[in-house]
Amino acid sequence: MIKPLSPSACRFLPAGDYDLAMTLNCGQAFRWRQGADGRWEGVVAGRWVQLSKVGKCIEAKTATPQRNWDWLDGYLQTGVDLDSILRTFPKDSPMQQAVKACRGLRLLRQEPWECLASFILSATKQIVQIQQIIECICARWGQKVEVPPGHKPAYSFPTPEVLAGCTEADLRECKMGFRAKHLHKTALMVVNGQLDLAGVNRVPLEEARALLQTAPGVGPKIADCVLLFAYGFAQAFPVDVWVQRALCELYFQGRKIPKSKLRLFAFEHFGPNAGYAQQYLFHYMRMAKKRLGEIDVRSQNVVRQRVKTGN
DNA sequence: TACCAGGAGAGCG
DNA sequence: CGCTCTCATGGT
């Protein structure tokens, strides 16, 4: 007789070639926060969890002992062989630079409802602001989850039932603006069965995208985000303003190409894991901009210094 | 202060 | 189809 593994609130997941910080902070998920000790805290599948990289493992701590950790393995996708994915990328220079800069970046497998709702709220918002809106709706309409002593309270992501029960005005109190109508209507569709989130992964990519796009506030870009980040359609290729700029500059000599055409180009050019390639390009561009920002600040300081000293 | 943000949808020619 | 305008709010 096999003795069942005893429940534990701590676990080490083998995770070589896995950049945890980049993965949790690259704009695919919005609820991870870094504590003072540098560890990442979040809520996955209704459970508080704290993550940190220890050598070639991810150390996970929970508030309550766990017998089964499948919920976390699935979320982090630690079983994915990254190298076999990177090998399918095109060998052009932009792509190789992005891979070099973002080595270890992974795609998570998020819960469909949270992912869909989050990206409805993402429309023409900066990532910092998306994080704030989502934090607000979780604190208001999520359920309190157990946390270890001494930690800030944490909340689950609010269910479609709860959000459908809110008024649009309630939702607007979390500063989501015109997205409130979209979120509310979509929540209603999920509750009354007009949008079957469980059915999305049972059909091919194009059909799945069309299903998601029946929800208000969900067009091609947001649908592709959900297909990629929640359903594991590795070829889904979200084209936002960043990726559009990147593709136009890197592959079209700066000519402005419509997003619909870029999606078709990407589907062909980047291959079966186009979605992974997209995330590498997206994060690569954002890091590059951040670096430029820092240089800009330095030159500004130099200018201020000159003004001060009269040079 | 102005510009812009991981867009979508409607109206127009 | 492709372009433009609006939607709400706050970061930089």
- The overall pLDDT average reads 93
Compute the separation of the termini in Å. 83 Å
CATH homologous superfamily of the largest domain - what is it? Hypothetical protein, domain 2
Write the CATH fold name of the largest domain: Endonuclease III, domain 1
Q: What topology, given as strand order, has the largest sheet?
A: 1-5-4-3-2
Over all CA atoms, what is the radius of gyration? 21 Å
Please bin the fraction of helical residues: 40-55%
Taking the sheet with the most strands, its summary is: 5 strands, antiparallel
**Low-confidence runs of at least 5 consecutive residues:** 296-311
Task: Provide a count of the helices.
Answer: 14
The count of DSSP E runs of length 2 or more, i.e. the number of strands, is: 7
Q: Please give the CATH class of the largest domain.
A: Mainly Alpha
Secondary-structure element series? EHEEEEHHHHHEEHHHHHHHH
Give the overall shape: globular
The proportion of strand residues reads: 5-15%
- Give me the CATH architecture of the largest domain, please: Orthogonal Bundle
Q: Could you say which structural class the secondary elements and strand pairing correspond to?
A: alpha+beta
Please give the domain count: 3
